[in-house]
Design a protein that fits this description.
This protein is mostly helical. The chain has 17 helices and 3 strands. It has a 3-stranded antiparallel sheet with strand order 1-2-3, covered by helices on one side. The relative contact order is 0.17.
Length: 462
């Protein structure tokens, strides 16, 4: 889909909307932020931490889950408050800059994650939590800019194109890491058969650790056009007045929320299914590493394939959003996710749906095992459904929320996306630690998607 279709016609349709360059620059926020989720939380750094920094993969999954839970709790508590203040003050960019700085600092610090060094586990997890808080809060305020960029009938395409662009950025960042930076410790070669750039040492996994600083640099470079070209709301009042007015408005909104049944049900549904989705993305790479013994190159290649599926899914979801409505897109995505996760739990190293198969051979071809192929197919379904689910969710929020309190409701949206976000990782961590089974920990995700779907069916969009 051409990005030009998203920009409003300044002379005939909606002269109040900004130029095409402003829309494209806003879209590039997703491009700028996505490597954090692709490289650090899913496909490279998190599996590296579980396999080489933590004592063993199960303990690594549990520790990562506890850190994600702490970050999620912080985000849950502060998101609606900050959103209300932003609505009252009128500004978005200063908040994006401040929290983007946290992302840059936290991600850069992940370079310290040397393998087999227990002394750096706590500082490393703290850096991960700081970066997570930064990227999530920056996203809250970036999302709140959407209604000022395009007419309401184009919000679905804008959201879907943003997610798709982000996935492409994630793909390119993975290709960069796997092809030029991260090497197999045994061969010393990258996926492209090259020695790592900058003399990165495969033995100490510097190619995995460089994903933190790379994510920080990538964000700074590609978020800059948004600050330069995308217009912000004008300042309405000083910060002290905005704080007082924003908190008062938030209190009023929370008091009125039970009267708006559909909004309340949607926020509750989003709370539950987003927790499941975030946990799935956060632990999918760790789970694959523990189940199949995959290392960075296998997991990263898996991530590239999933990101391609996610890109296609997000673009298609954006078109379906405008045609069918965001609620139907969310429901369809949840159905695919529920089926795929259930099936993944029935795929083991030497079995597919209780049928015994030959396990993958060490040193064999990439994804040569039958169980690996099955996991790959199911992962593609998850990738294809995850993009539309997230894009359509923020579109539905915009359609349901009052236009003069959009950042506040995006704060509530982030709250419901994060208020229990520590529960998913926490449950995965606790169950994994108690059972010493990654499969048992991941099984909790079925409950989240089922409950989210049940609540969504009761949301009325008109």
């Amino acid at each position: 889909m051409a990005v030009t279709d998203l920009a409003a016609d300044r002379t005939t349709e909606a002269p109040a909307y900004p130029r095409r360059a402003a829309v494209i620059s806003w879209i590039f926020f997703d491009w700028a932020a996505q490597p954090y989720f692709t490289l650090i939380t899913t496909f490279v750094f998190a599996p590296y931490f579980a396999n080489f920094v933590a004592p063993d993969p199960a303990k690594g999954q549990a520790l990562w889950g506890f850190a994600a839970a702490g970050a999620g709790f912080t985000i849950a508590v502060l998101s609606p408050v900050l959103g209300a203040i932003a609505d009252a003050s009128g500004r978005r960019k200063p908040w994006i800059a401040a929290f983007g700085a946290l992302l840059v600092v936290g991600a850069s610090a992940m370079w310290i994650g040397r393998p087999g060094d227990p002394s750096i586990i706590v500082p490393l997890l703290l850096a991960y939590a700081v970066a997570s808080v930064g990227v999530e809060f920056a996203t809250v305020f970036n999302n709140a800019m959407m209604p000022t960029l395009v007419p309401p009938e184009r919000i679905g395409r804008l959201s879907g194109t943003g997610w798709a662009t982000g996935y492409i950025g994630g793909i390119l960042s993975l290709v960069l890491v796997l092809g030029f930076l991260a090497a197999n410790p045994e061969s010393g070669r990258t996926l492209f058969g090259l020695t790592p750039l900058f003399g990165l040492d495969p033995v100490t996994h510097q190619g995995d650790r460089i994903t933190g600083p790379l994510t920080a640099i990538w964000f700074v470079i590609f978020v800059t056009p948004m600050f330069l070209l995308t217009p912000d709301y004008p300042a309405r009042r000083p910060m002290r007045e905005a704080l007082r007015a924003g908190l008062g408005q938030l209190k009023s909104t929370l008091g009125e929320l039970p009267k708006h049944r559909s909004m309340l049900l949607f926020l509750l549904a989003n709370m539950i299914y987003t927790d499941g989705l975030v946990s799935l993305f956060a632990f999918g790479g760790i789970y694959a590493a523990g189940t199949f013994g995959w290392h960075t190159i296998q997991i990263g290649t898996f991530g590239i394939i999933l990101a391609i599926a996610g890109t296609l899914g997000a673009w298609l979801g954006g078109s379906l959003d405008d045609r069918l409505g965001p609620k139907r897109v969310i429901a369809g995505s949840l159905t695919v996710l529920l089926l795929a996760v259930t099936a993944i739990l029935l795929v083991g190293r030497d079995s597919i749906f209780f049928i015994k198969v030959a396990p993958p051979q060490p040193g064999g071809a990439l994804f040569a095992g039958a169980s690996e192929k099955a996991y790959l197919v199911l992962g593609c379904l998850i990738g294809a459904a995850g993009g539309p689910l997230q894009a359509a969710s923020r579109t539905l929020l915009i359609r349901l929320a009052p236009k003069d309190r959009i950042a506040q409701f995006f704060g509530l949206f982030a709250l419901t996306g994060k208020v229990t976000s520590f529960i998913g990782p926490l449950l995965i961590g606790v169950i994994t630690a108690a059972t010493a089974s990654q499969k048992a920990g991941m099984a909790v995700l079925v409950i989240f998607f089922t409950a989210g779907m049940a609540l969504l069916t009761r949301v009325k969009t008109s």
